[in-house]
Design a protein that fits this description.
By secondary structure, the chain is mainly alpha-helical. The protein has eight helices and two strands. It has a two-stranded antiparallel ribbon with strand order 1-2. Helix 5 runs antiparallel to helix 6. The longest helix has 40 residues. The radius of gyration is 26 Å and the shape is elongated.
């Protein structure tokens, strides 16, 4: 299988997997966005639980902040949640860090598996021309999606900052408290994972699929001379 003059993407097998490859960045991005939402939800629940905590914290507990040591006296106690809100008690930062760290490791397993398994399955069962298609589709689709996500997320983030900075003469765009600002906050909530998570992560999707395909190129070629286990003939 010596390919020296390029690949015809209109060949049915290649074109079919080009469409499949073009869908992978959207599937990958959906999983990363969902992961951010679930991790954020777990973090919110943890913070809510700490704020509602009625456990009494004493002066001698070692959980007081500098302000708490100034305002409270030996033997005096305060509810943990109330103390956190008033700046007297240190929150349990370790628990929040654990949630973030564990979620970042656990939630990246499915997207990583998608990127690794897709070209391996294509090459093993359908051959190298299927791999050509999946890489081309993933590259073209991934580049435009990454650019779109990064710019969209940045625009939503800047819209909120624009309102909070009171840079407009429009009274409705003069800081917090308006319905427009509430809408901008919602937009920024979606924009942050777009520009900070899914957009940059698509770079890994494109690179990893390409490198993995290159590493397994000889393996793909060895299966029915590059035609895969299904031995599909290709007209080039």
């Amino acid at each position: 299988l010596e390919i020296t003059s390029g690949v015809n993407v209109l060949e049915p097998l290649t074109f079919a997997f080009l469409l499949i490859g073009a869908m992978l960045p959207y599937w990958f991005s959906a999983m990363t966005m969902k992961s951010v939402g679930e991790a954020a939800g777990a973090m919110v629940e943890e913070v809510r639980g700490q704020v509602k905590d009625t456990t009494l914290v004493s002066y001698e507990s070692g959980r007081l902040t500098g302000l708490g040591k100034e305002k409270m006296k030996p033997g005096q106690t305060v509810e943990a949640g109330k103390g956190i809100l008033e700046g007297l008690v240190k929150p349990d930062y370790k628990q929040c860090i654990d949630i973030s760290t564990k979620a970042s490791l656990k939630e990246m397993v499915p997207p990583s598996a998608l990127v690794i398994i897709a070209p391996l399955l294509a090459g093993t069962f359908f051959g190298v021309y299927a791999v050509f298609g999946i890489l081309t589709g993933g590259l073209v689709s991934g580049v435009q999606l990454a650019i779109s996500m990064s710019n969209t997320g940045g625009a939503w983030d800047n819209a909120k900052k624009f309102i909070e900075g009171k840079h407009s003469d429009d009274p409705d765009l003069q800081g917090k408290g308006t319905e427009i600002h509430k809408a901008a906050v919602v937009g920024d909530t979606v924009g942050d994972p777009l520009k900070d998570t899914s957009g940059p992560a698509l770079n890994i999707l494109m690179k990893l699929m390409a490198i993995l395909s290159l590493v397994f190129a000889e393996y793909f070629k060895a299966i029915n001379e590059g035609r895969g286990l299904l031995n599909i003939p290709v007209n080039v």
